[in-house]
Amino acid sequence: MIELQDINRNFPVGEETVHALRDINLHIDAGEYISIMGPSGSGKSTLLNILGLLDRPDSGEYRFNGRAVNSLDEEQQARMRREHIGFVFQFFHLIPRLSAAENVALPLTLAGVEPKIRNQKTEAAMTALGIADRARHRPDQLSGGQRQRVAIARAMITKPQLILADEPTGNLDRAYGEDVADALEGLNRQGITLIVVTHDPLLGDRAQRRIQMEDGRIVADRAGENEQLSKHV
Amino acid sequence: MIKPANTFRYALRALTSHRSRTLLMLLAMAIGVGAVVILTALGEGARLYVLNQFSALGSHMVIILPGHSETKGAAPPLLGQTPRDLTIDDALALYQSHAIRRVAPLVVGAAPVSWQAREREVTIMGTTTAMQEVRELTLARGKFITTDDPHRGEAVAVIGHKLRQELFGNRQALGEWLRIGEYRFRVVGELAQQGQTLGADISDIVIIPVASAQALFNTESLFRILIQAKGRDSIPQAVTAAERIITERHEGKNDITVITQDSILSTFDRIFTALTMAVGGIAAISLAVAGILIMNVMLVAISQRTAEIGLLKALGAPGLEITVLFLAEAGLLSLSSGLAGLLVGTAGSYLLDRAFTDFSVSAPLWASAGGLSVALLTGLVLGYLPARRAARLDPVEALTGRR
């Protein structure tokens, strides 16, 4: 599903250039559950941003479902995000003045989906994540774990092929973190490709495939030793 | 693409979540629109007041002035070739026209008027009997001056109401002798209280025969000739006839200006409309200022909501949609404040209207509609730039607040 070839990304920092990504080559099949780990500054967030079409590589090729995406313009990339990709962020990024349900429904509202269908899907998504009873609450009335689950519901409501999670438990304590990890894995079991960037080894080790990054390069790419890779067909 | 109703709700929610900021902006623009409405209402009221006053002057009236001016209704030129004097005979000649019912020659000046020990500097109006009808004057006591032969001036006078009070108090005025300049005149009549017309106080005045006034002021020429046409429809004929007759008498020179009440009315109409527009225009400047305020606030709001914008981009909202969302906020703000201003302005005009009884204060439709449209347009035009800025933010920068 995803093919990265010789991806490079550099940032000017003051007078120097930081090589955030160096010659990244990566192949990801649909339905995989991948974690990307590494020390801060290793380039894992940058990689995630490029995978999510939020950022463009300086060189190299990115193919999504066989299609070269780095040549697409801003509008076309937005469309790909809209149709195929969902995001979960460390700091949740919920809109504070909207209720939980309105936050979950946001992608559908932006797409102009009919209110009836929109409400149905919102309720289904929130129920699946066990937060249906919090529908009318504002984000500031929810716990960290609940907020993240709202964000996850939002990410999955458009039935994306790919979900990218950047430090999803980074802002949560252990108990909530477990809930969130379970919720994400539940989505993966439905066939959604899941890529999680994290510095928490306990979260990272849950993934079937673990990629280690250092200094802009992939230094390790291991599949689970004790379990078979199970690709969803 | 997002539905309009949802765009509206999104914008509305964004505005209500920052109540005090939104209210201040609302206030700024509402003041602008309100000012436009009230000021144009006052201007319009002044215009109607003046027009009404002029209508009270006496209908079917035509005025002849010495000196020709290009545009009817304007003042005769102070410089330029010396026009021939208008004479009493010129005035009498106008009776040749069937369209003209009455002619009243007019000489005006100021002179000291005294009786016994009291003296006042007063306006003296020299005219004929016809003036009473032409100006629709009513007498409280006595009779109007009679001028069987306008060329001969009797020593009779009619005094205005206020002058009568000032000179005679409660005493009998009829039959008394006034001293005007070097001459003496006997009071034969007193004007009733006419009320003010155009601020000209016809109550502080002395009316004497035209020939007497000419002697008093040592002049052969007339200040004006007032004509009363037979009827409203006769006015154009009266105008042409007057021009023809006088031009003939003045050796073919059309050195007079003929003013009809209509031309006066239309001049004042133009003046006051221009005044009202100018005043309204100045008030509209405050609208532009308010629009700039909105732009500024939108820029600030956007810089505070970069994470939200980053989220919208991550969700794949097209740039156009983001622009529309923020533009809708600016538009909603300016529309609601325009309406608020309209409300305040209309209410204010209503109160002023009640306060001034014979002065109607009501904003013309073009001013209210114009003010509202300018408010809306300003908000949208000046809100566009910040909205586009939002759409152009880099998603990663917006989300993380840094690279």
CATH 2nd-level architecture of chain A: 3-Layer(aba) Sandwich
Determine Rg of chain A (CA atoms, Å): 18 Å
Biggest interface, chains and residues, is: A-B, 28 and 25 residues
Percent of sequence in beta strands of chain A = 25-35%
Give me the secondary-structure category of chain A. alpha/beta
Q: How many H/I helical runs of chain A?
A: 7
Average pLDDT for all residues of chain A: 89
What fraction of the residues of chain B are assigned to beta strands by DSSP?
Answer: 15-25%
Quickly give the structural class of chain B.
Answer: alpha+beta
Show unreliable segments of chain A.
226-233
Task: Calculate the terminal CA-CA distance of chain B, rounded to whole Å.
Answer: 30 Å
Total count of domains of chain B: 2
**How do the strands of the widest beta sheet of chain A line up side by side?**
6-7-8-3-9-10
Structural features:
heterodimer; A: 233 residues; alpha/beta; Rossmann fold; 6-stranded mixed beta sheet; 10 strands; 33% helix; disordered C terminus; B: 403 residues; alpha+beta; 6-stranded mixed beta barrel; 12 helices; elongated
Outline the structure in words.
The complex is a heterodimer of chains A (about 230) and B (about 400). With about 230 residues, chain A is α/β, with parallel strands linked by helices. Chain A has one domain: P-loop containing nucleotide triphosphate hydrolases (Rossmann fold, 3-Layer(aba) Sandwich), CATH 3.40.50. Helices cover about 35% and strands about 30% of the residues of chain A. In chain A, the strands form two sheets. In chain A, strands 6-7-8-3-9-10 form a six-stranded mixed beta sheet, with helices on both faces. A four-stranded antiparallel beta sheet of chain A has the order 2-1-4-5, with helices on one face. In chain A, a hairpin with a 2-residue loop joins β1 and β2. In chain A, α3 (about 100-110) crosses α4, α3 (about 100-110) runs parallel beside α5 and α5 packs parallel to α6. Residues about 225-233 of chain A have low confidence and may be disordered. Chain B is an alpha+beta fold. Chain B folds into two domains: about 5-55 and about 265-400, no CATH class; about 105-225, no CATH class. In chain B, strands 2-3-8-5-7-6 form a six-stranded mixed β-barrel. The interface of A and B includes residues 54, 74, 89 and 109 of A.
